[in-house]
Predict the 3D structure of the following.
Amino acid sequence: MSENQASAGPAIVVERLVKRYGDVEAVAGLSFSVPRGAIFGLLGRNGAGKTTTLECCIGLSKPTSGSVRILGLDPTSARDFAALRSRIGVQLQSTSLPEKAAVGEVLELYAAYYGITPRAAEMASRVGLEGKLDRQIVQMSGGEQQRLALALALQHDPEVVFLDEPTAGMDAFGRRILWAEVEALRAAGKTIILTTHYIEEAERLCDTLCVVQRGRIIAEDTPENLVTRYGGDATVCITADGFSPDDALRGLGTWAKAKDEWQLVTHGEPGLALAAVVTHANAISATVRSLDMHRPTLEDAFIAVTGETIGEGE
Amino acid sequence: MNVLRMFAVQTRMNFLWYFRRDGEMMFWTLAMPVFFLVLFSFAFSQGPSGRSATFLVPGIIGAQVLSSGFWGVGVMLATFREKHLLRRVYLTPMPRWIFFASLVAYRVTLLAVQAIILVTVGSLLFHVRITGNPVAVLIVLLLGTATFVSLGTIIGALAKTTESANNIASILTVPLAFISDAYIPIDRFPHAVSSALRLLPSTQFIDMFRGVSVDGASLASYGVWFAVLVAWTIFGTVVSARTFRWV
């Protein structure tokens, strides 16, 4: 494949990827493709096979079968991997740096690895570690170490960025920093693939999401489409003295009554249904005791697709 | 240029990081060989003796070369893998040999400091004289370091955990120091035993080092052993390169 062809194709192509550890099939035939400039998420519980998939993409794990191409290069080939390493940036879940290394020293060393001008102070302040260049790894919180790992992944301005559970162990401050960096990478046209078990993060950051369960992709779409396709119907619940739906309201969906509460399950826009329900209650002078609307969320879609909550995993 | 800079920065960081880490241990690393020298010099000869110290100074330096390769490099690499330090480095474009070269640079410098201290103490207390050609002495010391670093790297490659690397290194280093002519002259053993022990690369290295440093022998007179150590080094390097795992 020529250089030009290679640079025109998708950033990441994974085909029928299988990774077995003994009898355990961590990844069970998984295929996806990430166009350049996209932000792609693997969403699933811990142990679903997300990290293994990512490790196969960056050459840390050798696929049992199937193929991986990053920027047209094969990470299992020594020559391709050598060409690839300077073009990707990686934040690993289990990042470990020498305990006695200081922030500024690590950034300087990694600048040397990539042959770039050191910009330790700038990188440190980008990840909220300004003024902490002398801080040693052993003195840092887990979140601070994660932010340093992010800086190491981004310092050399890579084309493709791999983030494995990037906000695990981070506080709200760390999450805001990571999210801002992802937005900056999006604006710069970089490709990002990230794994997460945080629904909110997946929804907020990713253009395309794959729901991964037991080593397989069981749904793939934009976050909005996943909600529309799998999230189910919206509900409106009202408790009001003397309330009962009229024919117009019955046309909006299915009504059910439990104790004093009426519940409407509607396929339509729940905001409009809510307005109609309130208008009707007022028209018949029913005093509203409680009112609740639930629009389907990505979490509903996740539960519908996987049959389980995302929780903290096994 | 980039490669030189990588090597320079990596080596500087090795010194900064491992010195900080080994801070408390550094005293013992430097003091223990001196303690052995003084203790054994008295023990072997009912009083301070130039002869036994002249035997011990190169012997103890040689034993330090062994433990530097097996512990300092072998066990350290297993620890680095277990702590996931290696996999992070593996993902960078740094050429693999730079990582090992800078580790060796760190170890060689420590060995040089140990050797200087031992020779100084030996010459002040026991009138030990390094009479050999300094270039030949240095060549033998570097070859020995290369041999035992390359063999130690095999431990780092094959041991699954730090614990097993530790066990392998202990089993090798401690007995070898006693049967390789480092602390005890193996000529005191029956001839068949000492001849057999001279087949060990550790014995060959220590005898050769003692020969060229204090016994006034020429490097040429050790031509065969020199070649054998080169072969061991090639063997260690090839096996390490084939079996080393970064992940």
Summary: Chain A has two domains: 3-228, 233-295. The radius of gyration of chain A is 24 Å. The first strand of chain A starts at residue 12 and ends at 21.
